[in-house]
Amino acid sequence: MPALKKYPQELRERAMRLVEEARKEDPELSMHAAVTRIGQRTGVNADTLRGWMKQAAIDAGERPGMSTADAKRVKELEAEVRELKRANEILLAASSFFARELDPRLPW
Questions:
Q1: Would you say 49 and 19 are in contact if contact means Cβ atoms under 8 Å apart?
Q2: Strand, helix or coil for residue 24
Q3: From the DSSP assignment, how many helices (H) and strands (E) are in the chain?
Q4: Quick one: DSSP state of residue 5?
Q5: Is the dihedral of CA 6, 9, 14, 20 positive or negative?
Q6: What pLDDT sits at residue 100?
Q7: Structure pTM?
Q8: What pLDDT was estimated at residue 1?
Q9: 49-106 pLDDT per residue, tens
Q10: Are 42 and 48 in contact (CB under 8 A)?
Q11: Do 39 and 45 touch, CB atoms closer than 8 A?
Q12: How many CB atoms lie under 10 A from the CB of residue 21?
């Protein structure tokens, strides 16, 4: 079960937009200072806001890392692999069972 989202999407978008605007208005303002200031004003934890900003930069191709779309695809593929392994185990057990039924002399 996925974790509950603490912050509504509208608040998330607004806080991120405010950080971007603050850094545009004051180019010398560090990311740390901007997220701390905006986080206090919006009620969003500064580390959470920093993570959102980092992921947005990755998704925009401005910074290296795994994009949200890639992470989602990896998660889907991992789930598919788990399901295929499970199905494979079931098929191996079934084939062993039927082989014993056909020839009881086999050591399986």
A1: yes
A2: helix
A3: 4, 0
A4: P
A5: positive
A6: 77
A7: 0.69
A8: 54
A9: 999 999 999 999 999 999 999 999 999 999 999 999 999 999 999 988 887 777 666 6
A10: no
A11: yes
A12: 12
d(CA 78, CA 92): 21
Enter the tokens of residue 8: 């509504």
Distance CA(17)–CA(24), nearest Å, equals: 11
Look at residue 97 in the predicted model and tell me its pLDDT. 83
* 29: CB partners within 8 A, 6+ apart: 22, 23
Task: Tell me the C-alpha distance between 74 and 11, whole Å.
Answer: 28
Computed over every residue of the chain, the mean pLDDT equals: 90
* Angle, vertex CA 56, rays to CA 51 and CA 62, nearest 5: 115
Query: Which residue has 């079960």 as its token pair?
Result: 1
pLDDT per position as a tens digit, 71-81: 999 999 999 99
Residue 19 amino acid letter: V
Amino acid at 13: E
